Amino acid sequence: MSPLNIKKGSTSHSAYDLRDPNAEVIEQHTLAVLVDNESGVLARVIGLFSGRGYNIESLTVAEVDHEGHRSRITIVTRGTPQVIEQIKAQLARMVPVHDVHDLTVEGPAVQRELALIKVAGKGDARIEALRLAEIFRANVVDSTLESFVFEMTGTPEKIDAFADLMRPLGLREVARTGVAALARGA
């Protein structure tokens, strides 16, 4: 053994890598849950997460079947593979839940989010904000002499990148819808 106790053939490439090699990887998953559209269902789903200490990174809910009174809840969460399986199993056992799909593992999916981004600035900062908005295909939905409100649809990563670029130009406020996702194909 070397003086740093690094085993030959170890996947660690640095003596400073202090990660536990036996620790499970934390993964992000997008879950689509079809539920009855009735009072208290969303609170029960959220209660399942909060009661067990699971975090919800994004949450969207809307009625998708008016005649059948069903809503679709799209949840983005993080956890170990074991925790994700536990979440899916517990959701599936809830009475108002009809279907649970893990869009992350079931195949390709399309994910989009809508954001409204307010940027205040004058002069060159204002011109640069408009230039970047054009590159990112963000639409100006409100404009005053002091600010813009941009509307942007895209992946959460695209919205994060746009907001990061707007920060030094006068980013004031961001409102996001959360992820909406559908599996690709039939």
From TrEMBL:
<dbReference type="GO" id="GO:0003984">
    <property type="term" value="F:acetolactate synthase activity"/>
</dbReference>
<keyword id="KW-0100">Branched-chain amino acid biosynthesis</keyword>
<dbReference type="InterPro" id="IPR019455">
    <property type="entry name" value="Acetolactate_synth_ssu_C"/>
</dbReference>
<comment type="function">
    <text>Catalyzes the conversion of 2 pyruvate molecules into acetolactate in the first common step of the biosynthetic pathway of the branched-amino acids such as leucine, isoleucine, and valine.</text>
</comment>
<dbReference type="Pfam" id="PF10369">
    <property type="entry name" value="ALS_ss_C"/>
</dbReference>
<dbReference type="GO" id="GO:0005829">
    <property type="term" value="C:cytosol"/>
</dbReference>
<protein>
    <recommendedName>
        <fullName>Acetolactate synthase small subunit</fullName>
        <ecNumber>2.2.1.6</ecNumber>
    </recommendedName>
</protein>
<dbReference type="InterPro" id="IPR054480">
    <property type="entry name" value="AHAS_small-like_ACT"/>
</dbReference>
<dbReference type="InterPro" id="IPR002912">
    <property type="entry name" value="ACT_dom"/>
</dbReference>
<comment type="pathway">
    <text>Amino-acid biosynthesis; L-valine biosynthesis; L-valine from pyruvate: step 1/4.</text>
</comment>
<keyword id="KW-0028">Amino-acid biosynthesis</keyword>
<dbReference type="InterPro" id="IPR027271">
    <property type="entry name" value="Acetolactate_synth/TF_NikR_C"/>
</dbReference>
<dbReference type="InterPro" id="IPR045865">
    <property type="entry name" value="ACT-like_dom_sf"/>
</dbReference>
<feature type="domain" description="ACT">
    <location>
        <begin position="30"/>
        <end position="105"/>
    </location>
</feature>
<dbReference type="GO" id="GO:0009097">
    <property type="term" value="P:isoleucine biosynthetic process"/>
</dbReference>
<dbReference type="GO" id="GO:1990610">
    <property type="term" value="F:acetolactate synthase regulator activity"/>
</dbReference>
<keyword id="KW-0808">Transferase</keyword>
<comment type="similarity">
    <text>Belongs to the acetolactate synthase small subunit family.</text>
</comment>
<dbReference type="InterPro" id="IPR039557">
    <property type="entry name" value="AHAS_ACT"/>
</dbReference>
<dbReference type="InterPro" id="IPR004789">
    <property type="entry name" value="Acetalactate_synth_ssu"/>
</dbReference>
<dbReference type="GO" id="GO:0009099">
    <property type="term" value="P:L-valine biosynthetic process"/>
</dbReference>
<comment type="pathway">
    <text>Amino-acid biosynthesis; L-isoleucine biosynthesis; L-isoleucine from 2-oxobutanoate: step 1/4.</text>
</comment>
<comment type="subunit">
    <text>Dimer of large and small chains.</text>
</comment>
<dbReference type="Pfam" id="PF22629">
    <property type="entry name" value="ACT_AHAS_ss"/>
</dbReference>
